[in-house]
Specification:
Blueprint lengths: L3 E7 L8 E8 L3 E9 L6 E9 L4 E6 L4 E3 L14 E7 L11 E9 L8
Antiparallel strand pairs: 1-7, 2-5, 2-8, 3-4, 3-7, 4-6
Length: 119
């Protein structure tokens, strides 16, 4: 019904963090949805931001303030204290069903006012 491919990892986020950064590339042009998830009944509360990837390795910097609530998530801003999962999702919104592709991530990290956001 809603096929997707996702890479997820369990984490907690320091309350001082203001964003997530990583290096990424894909073997062909694609969009990747980066999501923060707070576990609740059902799908949980999620916030997301979509980024474009292609074969060029680039630094991606996403301030949490730029992430938007998904579905029935009540809070407009990510509730960092409750986040337990970060997901990197390729979905059928921007990808044809049955197509194949690969993406690579490196140096995934959270940043805060104490650290200089990557450029």
């Amino acid at each position: 019904v809603a096929p997707y491919a996702a890479l997820s990892f369990t984490t907690s986020i320091d309350g001082r963090a203001t964003g997530i950064a990583f290096r990424a590339a894909a073997d062909r042009p694609m969009r990747l949805s980066i999501q923060l998830r707070v576990p609740t009944q059902g799908d949980g509360h999620r916030w997301q931001r979509s980024v474009y990837l292609d074969p060029t390795v680039r630094e991606i910097v996403i301030p949490f303030a730029e992430m938007r609530a998904v579905g029935a998530t009540p809070a407009r801003s990510p509730q960092l204290a409750g986040v337990r999962t970060v997901l990197f999702v390729v979905d059928t919104v921007n990808t044809r069903r049955g197509s194949a592709g690969r993406f690579a991530l490196d140096k995934v990290r959270f940043f805060s006012p104490d650290t200089t956001p990557p450029r």
